[in-house]
Amino acid sequence: MVILLSLKNCFQLHYGLKIPAAGFRCSANTGLIIQSVSSDIYQNLAVEDWVHDNMTLEDRHVLFMWRNSPTVVIGRHQNPWQECNLKIMREKNIKLARRRSGGGTVYHDLGNINLTFFTSKKKYERMENLKLVVRALKALRPQFDVRATERYDLLLNGNFKISGTAAKLGRTVAYHHCTLLCNADRFLLSSVLKSPYKGIKSNATPSMPALVKNLFEEDPSLTCEIVMDAIAAEYARCHKIDHCITLINPGDETVFPGINMKTKELQTWDWIYGKTPKFSIRTCFNMVYKQSLLEVKVDIQVKHGRIEACNIDLPEQWLPPAMCSELEKNLTGSKLCPSETAALASTLLRVCPQNYELHSKWSLLCETVMTLM
Amino acid sequence: MATVRALRSCSRTAGRLICVHHIRSCTSVRFIKSKYMSIFDKSAFKFSHQHRLFRTSTISNGQIVQFKLSDIGEGITEVTVKEWYVKEGDSVSQFDSICEVQSDKASVTITSRYDGIIRKLHYNLDEIAYVGKPLVDIETDVLKAVSSEEDVVETPAVSHEEQTHQEIKGHKTLATPAVRRLAMENNIKLSEVVGTGKDNRILKEDILNYLAKQTGAILPPSPKPEIIPPLPKPETVPPAPKDRGTKIAIPISKPIVFAGKDKTEAVTGFHKAMVKTMTAALQIPHFGYCDEIDLTQLVQLREELKPVAQARGVKVSFMPFFIKSSSLSTYLGTCMYGHYMLPDVLSFCPLLFPLGDKSIKRALSAASLGLLHYPILNASVDENCQSITYKASHNIGVAMDTEQGLIVPNVKNVQVCSVFDIASELNRLQTLGSSGQLGTNDLTGGTFTLSNIGTIGGTYAKPVILPPEVAIGALGKIQVLPRFNGKGEVFKAQIMNVSWSADHRIIDGATMARFSNLWKSYLENPASMLVDLK
């Protein structure tokens, strides 16, 4: 049973979230189920942040259900260059987001359900939450073989991953969120979660690739709405609350004061790319120039998503050494970003001697270096 | 005996008065960060219990406390340190984030239990940290540290709250043990005090303010709950003017405290490259030439073209017309420039009139036409200005505002492109530009640039030439203005301003003016373009 929020309810929700004793349509004293109307990853992640920072959850639990438009979400301490194919993502307009919880990289689209279980820090129990999801799925389709693993994954038929988990613990509030593959684009998922970048050496948390399957493939009659409703029903039963889902708008400042600032912060380059732990790229290229093969060695140190140090080894005299060192010097401090590098390289070319051969060599070198980004 | 008692009471009173004076200064100073302590009256140090209220940066009178990594839950005993938010020597407040640790897909933010200065970090990045072992050493004041120790309970089931909570009327009241003690001693209910700290935490000042309101005086924080009579008005307040019978309240001016800090960052990446290019650009002796263009006829033409363009899936703005006119303006009229290739006007005519539609024939953008007449504007000089190269291709750059800043992709070979070709190429460049996918090929090789700053705003501008080019044009916004026609009647005209800049070493004012006039005439009367084509 889904209740559409009227403006009046919006304010009730606001006060309900802040002051536990305030009157609320659903029995907010022990539990609350909310569902986002937005499919924007940044807005939805901001809701998690908001609840984490603003709610006191001594004895209460909140379940938050959300789905996003095509996005790749990396864990707090991960390296996007190591985890996904940024080139394909740019071409297909697939967003990239970094969440605040740990764990690995996931692909989201409207066929992938996200569930966030908010509790107080002492009530933080991931296995219990996963068992709840398993019970819900079993109640829906008893023939399904779904079980939780020690790594907090959910496996279908013993070997297909249908859910991955991550968690965030703050001072008083903790949340555990997981995905649930209902009807996602598996083909796109596998192509986007494969990094083409070679030579990366990093201490960032790596993802564990796994075989995945959609619930839809087991039973085509299942839709995301049916699954979400089943989970909400099981949650309501568990926490002895009414089975009613409150729809929320993550863009509404009156219900979530300060949320738009959180949304903006999650969209900044400094958060998404800049929070990547220090890493290095060391690789060798073969460039083709006028029927000859040239070997280029590149060594780049990256910190906070920016090039801290850069060394490009070219065949002798192929490019004037002054130009090569000019490129290295300008790349230092620059973002590890192909559009930034293209803009930088073409701007530098303006003050170089106007020579067609020199220009084409320079462009070739820059395009080659850009493939690393 | 009496004298002793009198003396004692005297000193007590004296002590208390001094106490009060220092409390007042203390409480006002407490709101400012400890670094301003250097201006504070040093006599406060005489009173040991005052030390609780402040710290100085020079005198360290606190002790080093080892802040242990508290329990994470789920029986986890070790975590990996992923990010430090503080370094040794930083000052932290209670609840500030210290570091981020990760354990088995759970990311945990560790916050400080104390106010103090970080003296030692026990782990480096990516090292394993153990629950129950020291994480950081914080130098903090003795009293607070001692009182806070009570909170450390090692049972896994209980979450480690740094403060004790009071549940009153279903509303949590946050306060440190010291504050709670003070409230209890003064018989104050915490629920009645307004907290001004983080999360509505009640601070010592809040208790003092509450007490001040109750008694109309400022009380010392000492355990003695005696009330001191209200102090006399400070002498700094000037006396009220005598000629008025009524008292005028004179506000005491507070010094305006602005806590903002300057932020310095290095110039890097694309901006660094722009510094180099623009420095070189301003070595070129620029001259400017401005004019206004009546686009009324062109506006009408574009309206007629819209459905045709839509059918083809191409968005046609004014830019394709401006670009093409610039290119066409280069026509071998004068014999000043001898030896370069003549673009064959006849050969590209079919390309210029793809559909045979009259309105499209009229819609030839003047820029390319202009460059055909005045090829010097599509040229390039070498560093020492010793030779000029007349470029055969009209690669007209279009300034684009993106995340990086101002970048200039160019449309290649405009001299052989139709208006639709230019329009679809512009669409492609705009799409790539907004998604950050422009490559070096699109961004290099430009010979002439147009900047449509008018889409953002402005009328006249002073554009800077982008080397190695020799000319640039900035287009202002289209405004509806009253103008006189040939019959002396006022009509509504769509006016746009153009500001050209050119390299005065090789281009003179007359050339620029003639180019601009030709460009202007093509746009004001699209039919005139037809006349000049063979």
TrEMBL record, chain B:
<dbReference type="GO" id="GO:0043754">
    <property type="term" value="F:dihydrolipoamide branched chain acyltransferase activity"/>
</dbReference>
<keyword id="KW-0012">Acyltransferase</keyword>
<dbReference type="InterPro" id="IPR023213">
    <property type="entry name" value="CAT-like_dom_sf"/>
</dbReference>
<comment type="function">
    <text>The branched-chain alpha-keto dehydrogenase complex catalyzes the overall conversion of alpha-keto acids to acyl-CoA and CO(2). It contains multiple copies of three enzymatic components: branched-chain alpha-keto acid decarboxylase (E1), lipoamide acyltransferase (E2) and lipoamide dehydrogenase (E3). Within this complex, the catalytic function of this enzyme is to accept, and to transfer to coenzyme A, acyl groups that are generated by the branched-chain alpha-keto acid decarboxylase component.</text>
</comment>
<dbReference type="InterPro" id="IPR036625">
    <property type="entry name" value="E3-bd_dom_sf"/>
</dbReference>
<dbReference type="InterPro" id="IPR004167">
    <property type="entry name" value="PSBD"/>
</dbReference>
<dbReference type="GO" id="GO:0016407">
    <property type="term" value="F:acetyltransferase activity"/>
</dbReference>
<keyword id="KW-0496">Mitochondrion</keyword>
<dbReference type="InterPro" id="IPR011053">
    <property type="entry name" value="Single_hybrid_motif"/>
</dbReference>
<feature type="domain" description="Peripheral subunit-binding (PSBD)">
    <location>
        <begin position="174"/>
        <end position="211"/>
    </location>
</feature>
<dbReference type="GO" id="GO:0042645">
    <property type="term" value="C:mitochondrial nucleoid"/>
</dbReference>
<feature type="domain" description="Lipoyl-binding">
    <location>
        <begin position="64"/>
        <end position="139"/>
    </location>
</feature>
<dbReference type="Pfam" id="PF00364">
    <property type="entry name" value="Biotin_lipoyl"/>
</dbReference>
<keyword id="KW-0007">Acetylation</keyword>
<dbReference type="InterPro" id="IPR050743">
    <property type="entry name" value="2-oxoacid_DH_E2_comp"/>
</dbReference>
<protein>
    <recommendedName>
        <fullName>Dihydrolipoamide acetyltransferase component of pyruvate dehydrogenase complex</fullName>
        <ecNumber>2.3.1.-</ecNumber>
    </recommendedName>
</protein>
<keyword id="KW-0597">Phosphoprotein</keyword>
<dbReference type="GO" id="GO:0031405">
    <property type="term" value="F:lipoic acid binding"/>
</dbReference>
<dbReference type="Pfam" id="PF02817">
    <property type="entry name" value="E3_binding"/>
</dbReference>
<dbReference type="InterPro" id="IPR001078">
    <property type="entry name" value="2-oxoacid_DH_actylTfrase"/>
</dbReference>
<keyword id="KW-0808">Transferase</keyword>
<dbReference type="GO" id="GO:0005829">
    <property type="term" value="C:cytosol"/>
</dbReference>
<feature type="region of interest" description="Disordered">
    <location>
        <begin position="221"/>
        <end position="245"/>
    </location>
</feature>
<dbReference type="InterPro" id="IPR000089">
    <property type="entry name" value="Biotin_lipoyl"/>
</dbReference>
<dbReference type="Pfam" id="PF00198">
    <property type="entry name" value="2-oxoacid_dh"/>
</dbReference>
<keyword id="KW-0450">Lipoyl</keyword>
<dbReference type="GO" id="GO:0160157">
    <property type="term" value="C:branched-chain alpha-ketoacid dehydrogenase complex"/>
</dbReference>
<dbReference type="GO" id="GO:0015630">
    <property type="term" value="C:microtubule cytoskeleton"/>
</dbReference>
<dbReference type="GO" id="GO:0031625">
    <property type="term" value="F:ubiquitin protein ligase binding"/>
</dbReference>
<dbReference type="GO" id="GO:0120552">
    <property type="term" value="P:branched-chain alpha-keto acid decarboxylation to branched-chain acyl-CoA"/>
</dbReference>
<feature type="compositionally biased region" description="Pro residues">
    <location>
        <begin position="221"/>
        <end position="240"/>
    </location>
</feature>
<comment type="similarity">
    <text>Belongs to the 2-oxoacid dehydrogenase family.</text>
</comment>
<keyword id="KW-0809">Transit peptide</keyword>
<dbReference type="InterPro" id="IPR003016">
    <property type="entry name" value="2-oxoA_DH_lipoyl-BS"/>
</dbReference>
